[in-house]
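Is adenosine-5'-triphosphate placement plausible here? Inputs below.
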Amino acid sequence: MRYHKIPDETIKRLPRYMRALLLLIKEGRETVSSGKFAELLRANPPQIRKDLSYFGAFGTPGVGYDTKRLFGQIQAILGLDSTPKAALVGLGNLGTALLKYPGFKAYGMHITAIFDSNPEKIGETVGDIKVENVLELSTLKGRNMSLGIITVPAPAAQEIADQLIAAGVNGILNFAPYYLKVPEHVKVITIDIAMELARLTYYLPTKT
Ligand code: ATP
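Reply from A.M.:
I modeled the complex. Tokens:
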């Protein structure tokens, strides 16, 4: 079930709620009070209540939230309950690091295809995934791949995005330092680590 008209700001916070819930579930906590939950998130309880109320998740007075149930509800809101499949393009240092990161699975997402243009990498296996030739990116069509992860150098990013979209991908996590042009129905989230670092230095205390 998909819900509509949930503000973007709320959608941005939902994965944070999932992360906190994952931690609680790992600790064996079946419930969490709204106060404790807010404390974990460094957020205020009314904001959390409002966010969750968009999809009818209300805690039980005096008990709080059922951790597993709430996790499942947020997964459903984000469409993660259908275990979305992702294709990663660019098996360089960053792509390799992402593939090793166990965090994706915890949220219900799976990288199930890898593409690269380097003949030395094509045919190699990473985990149980065989690296495919980027020239065959169109074969993704019909493989039910809804997400794409771009870890190729910036000059190749747009072309890869276009091909991913043509193959049916509707969500792109872009690590290339490049502003992608995409049709309206496609959502792109760009993560430029170097740019974030450049921004961060502004907040450092200045030496006198
Ligand atoms: P390496 O030196 O192992 O290639 P890297 O992280 O320094 O790693 P980058 O130049 O950033 O490499 O490229 C990232 C990956 O993207 C590489 O594996 C490269 O082969 C691949 N790549 C580059 N251009 C394309 C393209 N057009 N299509 C698919 N993959 C590409």
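Short version: Helices lie at 8-26, 34-41, 45-53, 67-78, 93-100, 103-107, 154-166, 193-200.
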